[in-house]
Design the sequence.
């Protein structure tokens, strides 16, 4: 049985949560004030008791966004994954159905895995050709104050997007696993956060164009600065006069006629990712009533 379910439908011409259910360790909050006057959107805050996921916990959520509706799924803080007990793995499963001309915006805070944590996440989005989706999925290196840097045992995040008849549109998996030969920290080098952003649908066309242009300009400037920054003594950040950028972002299209855009990010700080998301998703404010991550 699902840990939580939410159904959003049109009632009196407005997007309305007509059904909402959750049980331990999950809780949904649907504050009426989250959507300012003049906007047609339902904000859904997903919260775990104790502020995190305990070893062995399994959370399963189902969301149905009806035709013509707009909904936002977010959190109030980072999703903490506590230390694993033995080989137990915490898991979180999310399945959504997005109706015709609907918009679903999934903008959580990052996942933060504690030392030795084991975490598995799978998110499935089932849409029709004129559905719209914004998805942010990201993870930090851990609890810096405790000296933890990519010190967890296992992290796997799957994001699969399907159109009608289960036709695969976008399939993506991120796997970070501790190995005896090379640690996760060694592979991630000096980066402390990685993120993926998906923008899909006709309602997001102008935002897609702007984000692609912004990323292109941003990285051109970053790489010019990095290449021009030569150090008098060599270190791990410099090779042949090229200094590794503190923030890296890339864009690519997917789907029929490039209807979708995926942005991938690596940064040496969590705050840099928050700033990037606030800036690039600011154009969603007219649809959502507020800027994501503001």
Sequence:
């Amino acid at each position: 049985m699902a840990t939580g379910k939410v159904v959003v439908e049109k009632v009196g011409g407005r997007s309305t949560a007509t059904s909402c259910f959750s049980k331990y360790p999950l809780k949904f909050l649907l504050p009426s004030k989250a959507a300012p006057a003049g906007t047609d959107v339902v904000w859904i805050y997903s919260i775990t008791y104790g502020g995190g996921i305990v070893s062995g916990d399994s959370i399963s959520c189902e969301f149905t966004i009806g035709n013509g509706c707009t909904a936002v799924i977010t959190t109030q803080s980072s999703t903490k994954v506590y230390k694993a007990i033995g080989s137990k793995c915490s898991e979180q499963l999310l399945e959504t159905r997005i109706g015709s001309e609907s918009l679903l915006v999934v903008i959580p805070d990052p996942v933060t895995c504690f030392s030795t944590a084991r975490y598995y996440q799978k998110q499935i989005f089932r849409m029709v050709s004129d559905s719209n989706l914004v998805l942010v999925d990201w993870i930090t290196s851990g609890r810096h104050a405790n000296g933890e840097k990519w010190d967890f045992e296992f992290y796997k995040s799957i994001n699969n997007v399907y159109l009608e008849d289960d036709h695969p549109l976008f399939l993506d998996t991120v796997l970070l696993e501790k190995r005896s030969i090379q640690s996760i920290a060694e592979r991630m080098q000096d980066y402390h956060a990685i993120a993926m952003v998906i923008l899909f649908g006709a309602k997001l066309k102008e935002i897609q164009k702007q984000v692609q242009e912004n990323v292109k300009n941003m990285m051109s400037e970053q790489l010019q600065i990095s290449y021009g920054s030569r150090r008098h003594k060599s270190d791990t950040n410099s090779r042949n006069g090229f200094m590794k950028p503190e923030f890296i972002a890339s864009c690519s299209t997917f789907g029929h006629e490039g209807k979708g855009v995926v942005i991938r990010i690596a940064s040496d700080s969590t705050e840099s990712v928050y700033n990037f998301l606030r800036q690039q998703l600011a154009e969603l404010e007219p649809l959502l009533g507020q800027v994501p991550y503001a």
User: Anything to note?
Assistant: The longest helix spans residues 205-228. The mean pLDDT is 91. The longest strand covers residues 167-177. Helices lie at 184-188, 205-228, 270-280, 285-288.
